[in-house]
Amino acid sequence: MLIGLLPWALILGVQGGQKGMSWAEMLMMTMMNFAGGSEFAAVNLWADPLPILLIATVTLMINSRHILMGAALAPYLKHTPLKKVMPALFFMCDESWALGLAEAQKRKAQGLPAFNMPFYAGACTVLYLSWASFAAIGAAVGPMFGDIAAWGFGMAFPAVFLVLLRGMWKSFAASRPWLVSLVTAAAVYLTTDGAWYVPAGALSGLFAAYWWGETA
């Protein structure tokens, strides 16, 4: 997973460096807002003067999916003290969430205590430090490079999520909410400006999971 993640962090940093962001600014952004999608949006909107309100609004919109991700983890964290839950949710990203949820489901099926906090904390630590440091390195060397999109590294991020989906795969019937989410997000992306496709895909997938769960 890191093989696909680290080039993407470098791309984020390089794009930020080419927009005038320093490596320190990139490091602060990635460590305070640990969510790749909204970070790329912020970099794309980076300008002089800085449109702070626009960046904050888009970040909130894109990161709204974390509400649903947290809700999915809630049943496995209900017996965990709040002083552990809050840091766990702060360091939650798409990858650590998927790894933690898959591990919890596996342990539950084995009759073990569902949520493995040491496993989750280890995954979060590696992802957090790797993402932030490689993004900062990218920002430091960014002005030295030209159009990095031509290098083909853009496939790295989708590849990471395909690997995560494969790890969570159960059956075609269980994956129907994924298909609903994909189709909805694609339709909104093609017909609506902005990042509305992110919450649209997340909410439609949640409703589909609820509907098929009720009718199964």
TrEMBL record:
Keyword check for Membrane: yes
Gene Ontology cellular-component terms listed: plasma membrane
Similarity comment: Belongs to the AzlC family.
Keyword Nucleus: no
Protein's cellular compartments: Cell membrane
Gene Ontology biological process terms, A to Z: L-valine transmembrane transport
Organism in which the protein naturally occurs: Neisseria animalis
Keywords: Cell membrane, Membrane, Transmembrane, Transmembrane helix, Transport
Family annotation (Pfam families): AzlC
Listed transmembrane segments: 40-62, 117-142, 148-165, 172-190
Protein name: Branched-chain amino acid ABC transporter permease
Membrane topology: Multi-pass membrane protein
